[in-house]
């Protein structure tokens, strides 16, 4: 491994390649900040530029664009509750409340530190374990994915405020129902499309997130100005300052979420979105009672966890890409296309046959993450200034960017109409104190839960014995049972008050 | 997106070093899917070659996903007068989805210009599989249809599914007993056979060729009549006794009502571009098989394919039978 790292360092530490890391991160961050434009668009745009480069340089640039875009996406999540990409939705849960409290600079700084730590830790894990992890990512079958998604669903308790479990459950079911719209993969039939062509591909996750978060938030700011009281002007909004206790309190969350995010990213069937939701839920369940109340209200841990996890998952997704040649997501599929275009076949022999490519991508990740931090920390005060804009201008800006972001993805007016309709429903539900996050959780897990269940059933010839036939499934299913039982026992046998 | 489009156009202009005689002042590719897929890659590949070879200097791209590709077709038909230089990218699924009534239009509502590349279907097994050839597959299937689970990266009833069902039918098996496991994309389907969840993968050659060259998987049959020059060690289905030929074409279409001269110019431009070194580089990079079918030939080919696929899908129960005349 050390030899490999040296080869990688030699390749990356040239002026040319360092400039490419810088260019990739900067472009990625800029594109990622625009709501609606994510890593897929950013990479697809950059690929033609890289054809003139040698393969290592090309991959260094594209990898920079990739995590730059994920990093940039969290900015709009935090500042205006408008997640730019699916992987940063969970960052809005606590990032936006922190920003609303008058500390946008701090929120962005935490996001930057967590992303940096997540990306770097995952890059270390990648360097140390990538050759062995290929087996892990192939050890996961549909039955295991089903159990993993089920485990994700049990985290719904993480998204319910005190005593609102029923409402959170109802919203989760609503999300699961919405996820059934569109063409059914296993049967090839259309469901709930009402004969409309626009619904054949299902409801877009980004549109749903923008409608329920950004657009409805803008309306809520008008309807309930008191609940989002004007941030105290005395506070220095642009301050990046984190106190030492605050800093040390988020370090365990970041480390746990980075490891979790990395391993979820390694699985071709999961990805950054699932990783960030899981990390958020796990952190809330691990937190003590005092801390737990903070989640959803502006918890530092609640922001640090998904930010570390989504960056770590992006790095993790390079494992199946580089060691097996299997893309787990749309983004890595484009990266695979680029690699093949350079004449490189990823696979188990890549780090033997083409060590300089394998290792230079990994080494460039360290530099990329460092570059992102260096690039973004000085900019945060200027970016955070957006929130100094008076409300009467800020609200239209949020509306404009969220509608525009959704339109730019699909160029479909129907999506905008549906988005407005969903936003109206979301505002009504929010006025009745229904939480929105469980809806998104149900929606994103629903599709994968169903597909994997039906695949597992088909593979097991229609029998449910797949649930206990493989050790991985059994372990995950036991975790599901534990996750359901713990809150139940707590509710039935409350701790005696001291 | 306008900004991005502008950027691409400018980049295109900058890349252009030599300008030869242009038949078309500009070309606009309408891609019925988001960036990064097969349609997108083909359109951008052709566009890149057009600019580099100086055949067309003003090339732009538009991604319009939705409706299984139907929205882009509908848009081109609706705004035909405003789309004089637009080429819509499409492929075999257009015929399939039109038969399945996913969208109401078919290739008849457009002007087929040129089919550019062909991608044969392949059946693939992991390198340690006991299935060595298609004969083994048939034997295993006849013994127990559930012993050969077929993975595919597309929905049930799509080409990946019915081409395997057709091959089984030719071998005397019951095509309706094929257990097809649908994955969300070719990459995950490949992971499906590598994790031994499914036993066989039915996919396009371009999706499997690199893994096969790396020795991770074995191609046990390709749906061509003769072995391919690019991949001479892949046995054809024909040489194993079943003369089944099927390829997924990718080609371009224009809107109806274009002047006859421009129709010829479009065909000539595509014909010229595939002969350039710039396109050859793109082709080699993507392991595409060039297979030109132009104008009327392309139209007749589409009619033929629609008939074949329609008959096949009805036989296999993927489509309702046609009402018999007189009913």
UniProtKB/TrEMBL annotation, chain A:
**Keywords attached to this entry:** Membrane, Transmembrane, Transmembrane helix
One Pfam family assigned to this protein is: TctA
All copies of domain DUF112, residue ranges: 18-441
Ranges annotated as spanning the membrane: 20-47, 59-80, 110-133, 145-162, 168-187, 199-223, 259-282, 321-345, 357-381, 393-414, 420-445, 474-493
- Coiled-coil annotation reads none
Put simply, this protein is called Tripartite tricarboxylate transporter permease
Automatic annotation (TrEMBL), chain B:
Domain of life (superkingdom): Bacteria
Keywords assigned: Signal
TM segment ranges: none
Q: Which residues form the signal peptide?
A: 1-21
| Pfam families xrefs | TctC (PF03401)
The Swiss-Prot or TrEMBL record describes its family as follows: Belongs to the UPF0065 (bug) family.
What is the name of this protein?
Tripartite tricarboxylate transporter substrate binding protein
């Amino acid at each position: 491994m050390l030899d490999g790292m040296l080869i990688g360092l030699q390749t990356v530490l040239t002026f040319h390649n360092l400039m490419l890391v810088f260019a990739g991160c900067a472009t990625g961050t800029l594109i990622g900040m625009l709501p609606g434009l994510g890593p897929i668009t950013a990479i697809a745009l950059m690929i033609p530029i890289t054809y003139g480069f040698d393969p290592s340089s090309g991959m260094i640039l594209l990898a920079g664009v990739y995590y730059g875009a994920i990093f940039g996406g969290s900015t709009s999540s935090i500042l205006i509750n408008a997640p730019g990409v699916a992987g940063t939705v969970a960052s809005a849960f606590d990032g936006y409340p922190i920003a609303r409290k008058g500390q946008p600079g701090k929120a962005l700084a935490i996001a930057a530190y967590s992303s940096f730590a997540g990306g770097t830790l995952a890059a270390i894990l990648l360097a140390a374990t990538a050759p062995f992890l290929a087996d892990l990512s192939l050890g996961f079958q549909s039955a295991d994915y089903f159990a993993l998604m089920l485990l994700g669903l049990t985290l719904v308790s993480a998204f319910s405020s005190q005593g609102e479990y029923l409402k959170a459950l109802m919203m989760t079911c609503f999300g699961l129902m919405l996820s059934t719209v569109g063409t059914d993969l296993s049967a090839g039939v259309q469901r709930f499309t009402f004969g409309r062509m626009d619904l054949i591909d299902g409801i877009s996750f980004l549109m749903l997130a923008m409608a329920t978060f950004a657009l409805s938030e803008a309306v809520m700011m008008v309807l309930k100005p008191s609940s989002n009281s004007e941030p105290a002007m005395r506070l220095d909004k642009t301050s990046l300052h984190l106190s030492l206790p605050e800093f040390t309190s988020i370090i365990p969350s970041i480390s746990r979420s980075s490891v979790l995010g990395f391993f979820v990213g390694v699985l071709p069937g999961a990805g950054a979105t699932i990783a960030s939701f899981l990390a958020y839920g796990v952190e809330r369940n691990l937190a003590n009672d005092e801390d737990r109340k903070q989640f959803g209200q502006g918890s530092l841990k609640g922001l640090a966890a998904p930010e570390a996890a989504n960056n770590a998952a992006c790095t993790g997704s390079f494992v199946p890409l580089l060691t097996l040649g299997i893309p787990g997501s749309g983004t890595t599929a484009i990266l695979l296309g680029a690699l093949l275009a350079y004449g490189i076949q990823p696979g188990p022999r890549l780090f033997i046959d083409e060590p300089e490519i394998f290792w230079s991508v990994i080494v460039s990740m360290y530099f990329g993450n460092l570059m992102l931090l260096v690039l973004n920390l000085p900019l945060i005060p200027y970016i955070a200034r957006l929130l100094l804009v008076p409300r009467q201008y800020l609200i239209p800006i949020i509306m404009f960017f969220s509608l525009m972001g959704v339109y730019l993805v699909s160029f479909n007016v129907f999506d905008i109409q549906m988005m407005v309709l969903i936003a109206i429903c979301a505002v009504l539900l929010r006025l009745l104190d229904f939480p929105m996050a469980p809806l998104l959780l149900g929606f994103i897990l629903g599709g994968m839960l169903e597909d994997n269940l039906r695949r597992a059933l088909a593979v097991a010839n229609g029998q449910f014995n797949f649930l206990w036939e493989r050790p991985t499934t059994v372990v995950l299913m036991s975790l599901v049972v534990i996750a359901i039982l713990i809150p139940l026992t707590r509710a039935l046998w409350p701790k005696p008050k001291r | 997106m306008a900004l991005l489009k502008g950027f691409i156009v400018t980049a295109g202009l900058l890349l252009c070093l030599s300008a030869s005689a242009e038949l078309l002042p500009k070309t606009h590719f309408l891609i019925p899917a988001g960036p990064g897929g097969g349609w997108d890659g083909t359109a951008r590949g052709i566009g890149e070659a057009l600019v580099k070879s100086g055949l067309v200097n003003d090339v732009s791209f538009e991604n319009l996903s939705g409706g299984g590709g139907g929205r882009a077709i509908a848009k081109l038909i609706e705004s035909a007068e405003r789309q004089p230089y637009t080429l819509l990218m499409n492929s075999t699924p257009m015929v399939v989805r039109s038969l399945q009534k996913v969208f109401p239009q078919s290739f008849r509502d457009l002007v087929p210009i040129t089919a550019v590349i062909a991608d044969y279907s392949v059946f693939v097994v992991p390198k340690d599989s006991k299935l060595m050839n298609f004969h083994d597959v048939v034997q295993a299937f006849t013994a127990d249809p559930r012993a050969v689970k077929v993975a595919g990266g597309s929905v049930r009833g799509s080409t990946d599914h019915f081409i395997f069902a057709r091959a089984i039918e030719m071998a005397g098996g019951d095509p309706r007993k094929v257990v097809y496991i649908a994955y969300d994309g070719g990459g995950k389907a490949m992971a499906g056979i590598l994790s031994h969840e499914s036993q066989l993968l039915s996919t396009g050659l371009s999706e499997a060729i690199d893994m096969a060259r790396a020795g991770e998987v074995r191609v046990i049959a390709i749906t061509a009549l003769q072995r391919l020059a690019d991949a001479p060690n892949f046995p054809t289905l024909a040489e194993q006794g079943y003369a089944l030929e099927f390829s997924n074409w990718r080609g371009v279409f224009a809107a109806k009502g274009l002047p006859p001269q421009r129709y010829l110019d479009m065909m000539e431009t595509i014909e010229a571009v595939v002969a350039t070194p710039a396109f050859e580089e793109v082709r080699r990079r993507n392991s595409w098989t060039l297979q030109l079918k132009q104008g009327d030939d392309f139209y007749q080919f589409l009619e033929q394919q629609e008939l074949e696929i329609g008959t096949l899908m009805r036989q296999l129960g993927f489509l309702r039978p046609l009402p018999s005349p007189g009913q």
